[in-house]
Write a structure and sequence with these properties.
Helix content of chain A: under 10%
Shape of chain A: globular
Distance between the termini of chain A: 40 Å
Order of helices and strands of chain A: EEEEEEEEEEE
Oligomer: heterodimer
Structural class of chain A: mainly beta
Radius of gyration of chain A: 13 Å
Strand content of chain B: over 45%
Largest interface: A-B, 21 and 22 residues
Number of strands of chain A: 11
Number of helices of chain B: 0
Structural class of chain B: mainly beta
Order of helices and strands of chain B: EEEEEEEEEE
Number of strands of chain B: 10
Chain lengths: 107, 114
């Protein structure tokens, strides 16, 4: 099956810093999504991005489907950005998640 | 409007008992998804419905797990003869359509099997 790898696994940053999270996938996919799970467990869909670039406030994402990777950019990070960021790909009626990047923003 | 709701929010059961978890999606959402997250672990996809139909049930962990959706709305995930390894948070999400729209998650059901 498709492998989804996220890097880095853990990231600690000072408030105000920028960061780039990466998601690599091993085969072609129908779509790709980025999720944020806050420290209380609530999951929020950030981007639905099978290809191209999208921006939402301080967050943006780019997927290069032909090269099988996606990047999530967080600019001017805030403590509320802390949590785990998951990438998930969709293929053959299944959704496969990466193991996530745990982000901790220090005040 | 209301978001995705799940019930119960917490469930403690004894090994061997059956449990039923419920998900109420956002009104009008045709796609509904079930996931599982074990303690400190990542997310595991279980099954999705487009309308009342689940195209692929192979993501369910074992034949003790079953899911159904009626009226294109409420879904139930049933676990028969629960085992301790079934302990996890069971998450439900819905989207307007499968494979093209943003998913909205419920708060989850925390299941503990003693």
């Amino acid at each position: 099956g498709i492998q989804v790898e996220q890097s880095p696994p853990d990231l600690i940053l000072q408030e105000g810093a920028n960061s780039t999270l990466r998601c690599n996938f091993s085969d072609s996919v129908n779509n790709l999504q980025w999720f944020h799970q806050n420290p209380w467990g609530q999951l929020i869909n950030l981007f639905y991005i099978p290809s191209g670039t999208k921006q939402n406030g301080r967050l943006s994402a780019t997927t290069v489907a032909t090269e099988r990777y996606s990047l999530l950019y967080i600019s001017s990070s805030q403590t509320t950005d802390s949590g785990v960021y998951f990438c998930a790909v969709d293929r053959d009626d299944k959704i496969i998640f990466g193991k996530g990047t745990r982000l901790h923003i220090l005040p | 409007g209301a978001g995705v709701s799940q019930s119960p929010s917490n469930k403690v059961t004894e090994k061997g008992k059956d449990v039923e978890l419920r998900c109420d999606p956002i009104s009008g959402h045709t796609a509904l998804y079930w996931y599982r997250q074990s303690l400190g672990q990542g997310l595991e996809f279980l099954i999705y419905f487009q309308g009342n139909s689940a195209p692929d049930k192979s993501g369910l962990p074992s034949d003790r797990f079953s899911a159904e959706r009626t009226g294109g709305s409420v879904s139930t995930l049933t676990i028969q003869r629960t085992q301790q390894e079934d302990s996890a948070v069971y998450l439900c999400a819905s989207s307007l359509n499968y494979d093209r729209d943003k998913q909205y998650f419920g708060p989850g059901t925390r299941l503990l099997v003693l």
